[in-house]
Amino acid sequence: VSALAFNGPALRPRAAARSSAVMSFESEIGAQPPLGFFDPLGLLNEADQERFDRLRYVEVKHGRICMLAVLGHIVTAAGVRLPGDIAYGLPFADVPNGLKALEVVPAAGLAQIFAFVGFLELAVMKDVTGDSEFPGDFRNGALDFGWDTFSPEEQESKRAIELNNGRAAQMGILALMVHEKLDNNPYIINSLLGSPVPFN
User: Fold this and answer.
1) Are the beta carbons of 60 and 69 closer than 8 angstroms?
2) How many angstroms separate the CA atoms of 92 and 101, rounded?
3) What is the distance between the terminal CA atoms of the chain, rounded to a whole angstrom?
4) Which distant-in-sequence residues (6+ apart) come within 8 Å of 177 by Cβ?
5) DSSP assignment string, 144-162
6) Could you count the other beta carbons within 10 Å of the beta carbon of residue 64?
7) Residue 9 CB partners (closer than 8 Å, separation 6+)
8) What is the distance between the alpha carbons of residues 46 and 20, in angstroms, rounded to a whole number?
9) Is the pTM of this model over 0.85?
10) Which residues of the chain have pLDDT under 50?
11) Residue 172: its H or E element
12) How far apart are CA 17 and CA 1, in angstroms?
C-alpha cells in the first residue's frame, strides 16, 4: 500500500487542480505583458479567490509602502529635511540618509515610529466599512478623489499602473538598500552615467 503513495498516476489529479487554479487567475489585474501570470513560488497552487485576494492585498500594501520608501530615500538624499528636531538635541538635518538613520535615531524614536505604523496598520489603512470594491481599496466612503468618475476601463488601468509601480518600487528600495550596504553608493546608476550622487 505504501508503494502506491509514490505511484505517478496519483499525482495527476493534483496537477489538474493546479492548472485550473492558474487558469482562474490569468485574467486578473497584474497578469500582463511581458511576464503574464507569474507565480514562480507556486503560492497560488490550488488557491481559491479568498487566498488570491489576501495575497493581492498584501502586494498592493507593500507596493504602496515601498513607493513611499523610494520617494523618501530620493528626497532625503537630495538634502530635503523637516525643520526642527527628531529627538531632543538631534535635528532632522543631522540624521544621515538611508539605513544609517537607524544608527542615530534614539530607540524611543524608533519605538514611536513602529507604534505609529502599527496604528496605521490596525486602525486606518484597512477596509473599515466593508465596502471595498477590490483588495487595497481603503476609501471607506470618505476619500474618493474622483475614482467613481472613471470608466471601468480607466479604473482597471489605474489599478494595474499602481500595482506595477508598487512592484518596481519593491525592487527599487531593495536595490537602494543593497547598494548602500555594499559600497555606500545606492545611486550607482547615476555614478555609471557620470552624475554621482553624494551620499552620507
Assistant:
1) no
2) 10
3) 66
4) 98, 99, 186
5) -TTGGGS-HHHHHHHHHHH
6) 17
7) none
8) 8
9) no
10) 1-22
11) helix 152-183
12) 24
